[in-house]
Amino acid sequence: MIYEGQNLTVSLLDNGFAELVFDAKGSVNKFDRQTISDLDEATQAIAANSDVKGVVVRSAKPAFIVGADITEFTDMFAQPEEEVLAWVSKTSKVFDRFEDLPVPTVAAVNGFALGGGCEMALACDLRVVDTTASIGLPEVKLGLMPGFGGTVRLPRLIGSDNALEWMTTGKDRKGQQALNEGAVDAVVAPEKLTEAALSMVADAAAGKIDWQARRASKKAPLKLNSNEAMMSFSTAQAFVAAKAGKHYPAPHMMVETVKNASSLDRDGALALENQGFVKLAKTDAAKAQIGIFMADQLVKGKGKKLAKSATKAVKMNAVLGAGIMGGGIAYQSAVKGLPVVMKDINQPALDLGLSEAAKILNKGMQLGKVTPEKMAKTLNAITPSLEYSAIKDVDLVIEAVVENPKVKSIVLKETEQHVDDDTILCSNTSTISINQLAESLEKPERFCGMHFFNPVHRMPLVEIIRGEKTSDDTIAAVVATTLQMGKTPIVVNDCPGFLVNRVLFPYFAGFSKLVLDGADFVAVDKVMEKQFGWPMGPAYLLDVVGMDTADHAASVMADGIPERMAKVENDPVTLLFKEERLGQKNAKGFYNFSKDKRGKPKKDAAPEAYELIKPHQAEASEFSSEEIIARLMIPMANEAIRCLEEGIVASAAEADMALIYGLGFPPFRGGIFRYIETMGLANFVELADKYAHLGPIYQITDGVRQMAAEGKSYFA
C-alpha cells in the first residue's frame, strides 16, 4: 500500500502500476475537503515512489465521483472573497499536481463523473469509460462554473466550441458521445473497465501512446488563430445570450473566461478560472440555485422516505373525468408503466381524454423521443370506460371532474361504493377543501388531495393534501404513486387553495389592484417577465389559466379566507369573464390570440380588454419597475409566510420547490423564501410596511416582524 486515506487508497500492483481507488464512507464518492486532502497526500506519495510506472484512477462504487460536496459550499461561500479565492486556488492546484505526476495516468470511469469528478478525469492523461458512464460539467445549474480546472482542460481537449456547449448547458454525455467529441479515449463494457485502463496505462508507459504530448496540449494555450477565436467566442456569446438571458451570470462568465484564457498557458488560465469562480460564488443567482439544489434534495429525500414506509402497493390507477386534465393524468400514469382506467359519463369526454394522451405521444414521436412501440404500449395501458364496474379492482382513484364541491362530493361518494375497502381515493382539486369533500365519505382516512398542474406531462409538481382524517398510510401510498408516475410530491395540509394557489391568488389580486390604479397590463407583464423573471406575466398567465377558472377559484378563496381574499371590486378578471373573454381557450382575454403568416401562435394586447377595464380604472399612469414588482410580490410573499407559520407547509425549502415546480417561479431567485432572504428580512418588512395601506394582503405577520428584529433566517 502506497497510501491509505479516509476516502481513497493507492496500492502498487505486481506489474509496477498503481491503482488510486476512490471509496468514501458514504454511498457515493464526492469531493469534500477530506477527499481533496487525501488526493493531495496520495499524489505526493506516488511522486515519491520510484517504482510506480503509471497510475489508474478508479472508483470502488457504482459511480466514479458525483461532484463536489455542495453542503460544504454554503459555509465556504459565506466567507470573504479573498478567502474563497484562496480556497479554490489551493484546491485547483491539487489537481495540477496530480496532472504533473512523472508517469502516465488513466481514469477508469464508471457511472457518473460529474463536476469535480469530470475534472479529476480531465486531469488524467487518458480516459476510458464504461457503457454506464455519464460525464459532464453541470456547475451552471448551481449558478457556478467549473473550479478545479474544467474551463482550462476541456477546451484544450475537445475544442472551445464543444467545451462551451458542455459547460453552458450543463448537460452530461454518455460514453459514445464523449468518445465522438474527443473527451474520452475508449468505451468498454463494465466488466472490462479496469482491464482496459490497465492495458492503456501499460501502452502509455511503453511509449505506444504519446501521453506527454497529450498532457502538453492541455497545459498550452488554445490552438486558435484570431479569426477562429473571434468566430468561436462571438457565436458562444450569442448562444448564451439567447438561451440564458441576463439573469444567469454563470454561462456568460464561462464564455468570457475561456475567451480571455485562450492565449494563456495552464497556470494563467487557471488563475482566470479561479477569479471567475469566486465572482459567481458571491452572486445571488448562485446562492439561489445552490439553495434550490439543497431544497430539491430535501424534497426528494422526504418523498423517498415516505414512499418506503407505504404499506399498500399501487398497481393500477383510475382517473374519473376524462377531458384534457383527466387525459393528461391518465397519460402520465400509463407512460410510467402504471396501468390506468379512465372513466367518464359520456363518450366524447373519453375520446377527448384519449386524444390528449395521443397528442402528447405524437409530439414525442415527431421530436424523436417516442417510438411507435412506446406509443402503442402507453395507449394500451389506458382503459376507457363509461361504467363504474371497470374500476372495481384498482388500487387508487384520482377524481378529476369539474371543480365544483357538490359534483365532486357526489362522484367520490358513488366511487366509494364501487371499489375495495382499502382502495385510496384522491381528488385532483386546485382549491376545494379536502376536509369538506371528506364529509361525503364513509372512510375519510383513505382520502386525500392529489393536485396535478396543467399541462400534467410537463409540470413536475403534485401537491398531496392531507385532510384532518387522512391516515399516514394513505399519504405514504399516494407519495409512492406520485413518484412512480415520475412527479415530485410535496405534502401540505388542507386549507383554501392549499399552498400553491393560496399564494398565487394574492399575487393576482395585487395585479388587479395595480391595473385598477392605472397600470397598463402589458407593461406589468413586461416587467414581471423581463425583469423579475417569471415565464409569463400575470395577465398572460390569467389568459392561460382561463378567466372562468380564475374567477371561480377567486370566489372559493374569498369564501375561505374572506379577511384577506375578498374579491376585488370591479376585478378586471371578472369583467373579462362576464364578457366571455376566457383567455387562450377561446382566443380572447387580456390578449387576442391568433396565428402569424407562418402558422405560429401570437398574442396581441386586446383593445376590447382595455375598453372593458377603462370605466373602472383610475387615470392611466406609469409605475416604476420596482413598484410593479413590490405590489405583486409582497402579497405572494406574505401569504407564503402565513402558510409556513400555520403549518400548511413544513419548511421554507418545500415552499420554494413547490412554487418553482408548480408555478415556474424564477429559479435564479431560488423560490419565494429565498427571494425574501436575498432581499433581507428587515428590508422586506420595511418594503411591505410602505404598501400596508393598500390592504390586508400587504400587511405582514407579527412572526416575520419578530424574525427580522432578531436577525433570524427561514433556512437556519
Automatic annotation (TrEMBL):
Coiled-coil region(s): none
The organism's place on the tree of life at top rank: Bacteria
Pathway given in the UniProt record: Lipid metabolism; fatty acid beta-oxidation
Reaction(s) catalysed (UniProt annotation): a (3S)-3-hydroxyacyl-CoA + NAD(+) = a 3-oxoacyl-CoA + NADH + H(+)
Keyword Isomerase attached: yes
Keywords: Fatty acid metabolism, Isomerase, Lipid degradation, Lipid metabolism, Lyase, Multifunctional enzyme, NAD, Oxidoreductase
InterPro entries attached to this UniProt entry: 3-OHacyl-CoA_DH_CS, 3-OHacyl-CoA_DH_NAD-bd, 3HC_DH_C, 6-PGluconate_DH-like_C_sf, ClpP/crotonase-like_dom_sf, Enoyl-CoA_hyd/isom_CS, Enoyl-CoA_hydra/iso, FA_oxidation_alpha_subunit
EC number: 4.2.1.17
3-hydroxyacyl-CoA dehydrogenase C-terminal domain span: 497-592, 628-693
Domain 3-hydroxyacyl-CoA dehydrogenase NAD binding as annotated: residue spans: 318-495
Top EC group: lyase
Lyase as UniProt keyword: yes
Gene3D superfamilies named among the record's database cross-references: 1.10.1040.50, 2-enoyl-CoA Hydratase, Chain A, domain 1, NAD(P)-binding Rossmann-like Domain
Family that this chain belongs to: Belongs to the enoyl-CoA hydratase/isomerase family. In the central section; belongs to the 3-hydroxyacyl-CoA dehydrogenase family.
PANTHER family in alphabetical order: TRIFUNCTIONAL ENZYME SUBUNIT ALPHA, TRIFUNCTIONAL ENZYME SUBUNIT ALPHA, MITOCHONDRIAL
NCBIfam families referenced in this protein's UniProt entry, alphabetically: FadB, PRK11730.1
Protein name, per record: enoyl-CoA hydratase
Organism per entry: Alteromonas oceani
The organism's taxonomic lineage, starting at the top: Bacteria, Pseudomonadati, Pseudomonadota, Gammaproteobacteria, Alteromonadales
